[in-house]
Amino acid sequence: MASFVLVLVLLGAAAFGVLLLVTPSVGNARSLVRAQDRAHHAVYPGPRVPRRFAAALEATEDHRFTEEPGVDPIAIARVVLAKLTGHGDQGGATLYQQLAKLLYTSDQAGLAVKLKQVALAVKLKFSYGSAEVLRMYAGVVYFGHGFYGLKAASCGYFGTKPDRLSWPQAALLAGLVQGPSADDPLAFPARARAREVHVIGRLVATGALTQARASAALARPLSSLVADAGRGCGA
Length: 235
Fold this sequence. Notes:
globular, 61% helix, Penicillin binding protein transpeptidase fold, mainly alpha
């Protein structure tokens, strides 16, 4: 039995090695981000990702972001188990995989594409590191209501720059990346509020917020968070 498992591990490692070899380089990632930013009238590189938004995004999307090798083996195992037991897709794409999709495979689908995203994610991790990957991701991801990138979303929804986001504002934005149109806080405030509550809960679970601070954040109604929507940040 042990020999069989060892063979499977070796075959898997060999297959992954081949996948890395046949997958293109990610050396052009910065230029792709720059092109997308230019198309959306944004400046590259954008502002550094502030601590509160980074914590909120990692808590809800990829809480092992800084330690994993581009992919999360635990999350992948959970997805495989869910499919085998018929419990649906439990998620599992790391922020590296999500950036790979945004830059390289946004108009593609299927198992082969998923495998390509895995290989690209590993290359992104070891070519740029977690901090720069997070900055590139925040620069191109869509937040709904026509806002591409963190600065546009922060200024557009709240009339404030990213480094001045409050915890509830950061949580609201982090919750938007999975369903930016469906959870748009201006069009669907109830859905946006539910996502904000989920992200705040994840921040407590990961130790980024105490329960007391989380309760204080959730005491602010959604309408007060987006009261300055459309005002922008000015110069």
